[in-house]
Amino acid sequence: MTRTNTAGADDDGAPAAELFDVERHYPGGVRALDGVSFRIGRGELVGIVGPSGSGKSTLLNLLGMLDTPTGGSVRITGFDTAGLDDDGASALRARSVGFVFQQFHLAHNVAALDNVADGLLYTGAPLRRRRARARGALERVGLGDRLHHRPHELSGGQRQRVAIARAVVGDPGLVLADEPTGALDTASGTAVMELLQELNAAGATVVVITHDRELAGGLPRRIRVRDGQVESDERAGGDGGGHVQG
Fold first, then answer.
1. Basic and acidic residues bias located where (predicted)?
2. Are 80 and 4 in contact (CB under 8 A)?
3. Residue at 77 is within a domain
4. Does residue 221 sit in helix, strand or coil?
């Protein structure tokens, strides 16, 4: 039975995300997505790749519950997002989805420790506990010696690591990385991708949204989108599985 109007404990047996025949249309006849179906299992590392206007950003918004589909269904950790009211969607997003953005989105005059700790505000945990978890997340991404540095005191690669620590501090079921290397030089971008791969190897489900075919080519699974549809769904070794029929 589909669960609705609540965002309680996730179903650990459910995929991290499932899309069934999803459509997203906008006024003026714009069909941003047109019959998209795929499943992302727990612990996968997936690239969603395509050119500008292909539907990548729309998929990001749907997976992150920042938007709702016009047709079809989106399920995150077992919950049909269409069946959640606003409070339920906000609670599920806060607990189950971590975001990493190209431009970092860090508070400018706030130390790295509190930038990460703020990712746990929704839990209601006291500041001391939030900071303790934030310290652990920053140590996990190699920034244990930068806890009290503000964003302007960090390199671009270090700022992205802070953003990743904030995304994973609550142990979400799904980490969405939107062009995570787009604002970085090659060396820093490579280091960030290696970090995402390490987090995935430790059990995190990571989805990288990118237009960079070379970057996506290094991932174990690539979902290529064009003109609002899935063009291909490829796995390392040539297995084209992963499609879900709506």
1. 226-237
2. yes
3. no
4. strand
Tokens 């609002």 locate to 228
Does residue 16 sit within a domain?
no
Give the lowest-confidence range in 6-20, 39-53, 163-177, 213-227: 6-20
Instruction: Give tens-digit pLDDT for 131-175.
Output: 999 999 999 999 999 999 999 999 999 999 999 999 999 999 899
β-bridge mates for residue 66, sequence order: none
Q: How far apart are CA 86 and CA 91, in angstroms?
A: 9
Q: Is 145 exposed, middle or buried (0-12, 13-18, 19+ CB in 10 A)?
A: exposed
pLDDT band at residue 193 under the 50/70/90 scheme: very high
Sequence-ordered list of residues with C-beta below 8 angstroms from that of 159, at least 6 positions apart, any chain = 104, 106, 151
User: What tokens appear for 77 in the block?
Assistant: 């950790």
* Dihedral angle computed from the Cα positions of residues 83, 86, 88 and 91, in that order, rounded to the nearest 10 degrees: 140
**Amino acid found at 150:** R
Full domain range(s) for residue 130 = 42-67+86-235
Q: Residue 108: inside a domain, yes or no?
A: yes
222 vs 237: CA distance, rounded Å? 12
Average pLDDT over residues 98-120: 95
Which tokens go with 146?
Answer: 């930068």
**Neighbour tally for 107: CB within 10 Å:** 11
DSSP helix/strand/coil, 43 = coil
**Does 114 fall in a domain?**
yes
Query: What percent of the chain shows pLDDT beyond 90?
Result: 78
Give strand pairing partners of 138.
Answer: none
pTM of the predicted model as reported, rounded to 2 decimal places: 0.88
